[in-house]
Amino acid sequence: MPESIIQTRELTRMFGPLAAVNRLNLDIAAGEIFGLVGPDGAGKTTTLRLMCGLMDPTSGEVRVAGYDVTRDPDPVKDQIGYMAQRFGLYADLTVEENMNFYADLFGLTGRAREDLKTKLFQMTRMEPFRRRPAGKLSGGMKQKLALMCTLLHHPKILFLDEPTNGVDPVSRRDFWAILYQLVRDGLTVFVTTAYLDEAERCNRVGLMHKGQLIRCDTPGRLKAQLEEACYRIVTRDQRAARELLSKRDGVLSVEASGPALHLFSASESSERLERDLEAARLGPARVEEIAPSLEDVFIALIRKQEFVHV
């Protein structure tokens, strides 16, 4: 694995008795897109703020670009770009005026400023909107503008806190295309998200739940490492089938997924599940073993955590 550009060791942040981040150990390689995934309240934003030096840890340490974030915050700030969930755009200023304002803050002037602005406009396809007030942009365009402003001081590492939350699917796809281009140009991206389909786009993913990192690997290996098989079940009474199957020994979880149920178990078989559903008068039933999605895996791992702590 390439040299780590972000490291955390036993990183912990307490809020009273609550451990928002609990003994987190991570190594992020230079040049990768790393996704920290979890539901609201999992500790994602707190982790990101600790990494950016916006919050002090209760214990443990975090190093970014070779610097201890707590002891040497200023050199860290020179290396990173941080895009919060609510970026500080000025609604009455145009797209270009917002960019010029942030360029002034970063001390970017002259030809260097104009060349970088031109590159960013081309990358994001925001050139036609450079004179539009920021307050009149769509949600996706506002996120593109926020990203452009964040990139104006040439950061090596980009921290993004749920950047596509509430953004339409097409704009989300465009935003990720930009991130891939930035990584090809040498940037490292650390992104938090609650969207499991977005996590599939990352080189590696950390699954976080209640302040703890419960698994960290590539999306493919996360799906392959789960011991339980995943079954897709279609039956005429989904609610009754779920109630029946969730009580069976060896069943880790049964969750609705559109018109079907997804069941995880290390001891069941398609034939036995179909037979027992028919016997319970819940047929006709169709059961097939499938490759789990990352969302399926995350739910199954959370259920395992809950069983461990019962």
Structural class: alpha/beta
Number of helices: 11
Mean of residue pLDDT? 92
Total beta strand runs: 14
Order of helix and strand elements from N to C terminus? EEEHEEHEHHHEHEHEEHEHEEHEH
Strand content: 25-35%
Gyration radius, in Å: 23 Å
User: Helix fraction?
Assistant: 25-40%
Any low-confidence stretches, pLDDT <50, length ≥5? none
Beginning-to-end CA distance, first to last residue: 37 Å
What is the 3D form? Answer: globular
Strand order of the largest sheet: 6-7-8-3-9-10
Biggest beta sheet summary:
6 strands, mixed
Structure explained in plain terms:
The structure is a single chain. The chain is of the alpha/beta class and 310 residues long. Helix content is 36%, strand content 28%. It is built from eleven helices and 14 strands. The chain has helices at residues 44-51, 73-79, 95-105, 110-124, 139-150, 169-184, 196-199, 219-225, 238-245, 270-279, 294-308; strands spanning 4-15, 18-29, 33-37, 59-64, 67-68, 80-83, 157-161, 188-193, 204-209, 212-217, 229-234, 251-257, 260-265, 286-290. The chain has a six-stranded mixed beta sheet with strand order 6-7-8-3-9-10, with helices on both faces. The protein has a four-stranded antiparallel beta sheet with strand order 2-1-4-5, with helices on one face. Strands 12-13-11-14 form a four-stranded antiparallel beta sheet, sandwiched between helices. A hairpin with a 2-residue loop joins strand 12 (251-257) and strand 13. The two termini are 37 Å apart. The mean pLDDT is 92.
Task: Please describe the topology of this protein.
Elements: E1 4-15, E2 18-29, E3 33-37, H1 44-51, E4 59-64, E5 67-68, H2 73-79, E6 80-83, H3 95-105, H4 110-124, H5 139-150, E7 157-161, H6 169-184, E8 188-193, H7 196-199, E9 204-209, E10 212-217, H8 219-225, E11 229-234, H9 238-245, E12 251-257, E13 260-265, H10 270-279, E14 286-290, H11 294-308
Parallel strand pairs: 3-8, 3-9, 6-7, 7-8
Antiparallel strand pairs: 1-2, 1-4, 4-5, 9-10, 11-13, 11-14, 12-13
Helix pairs in contact: 3-5
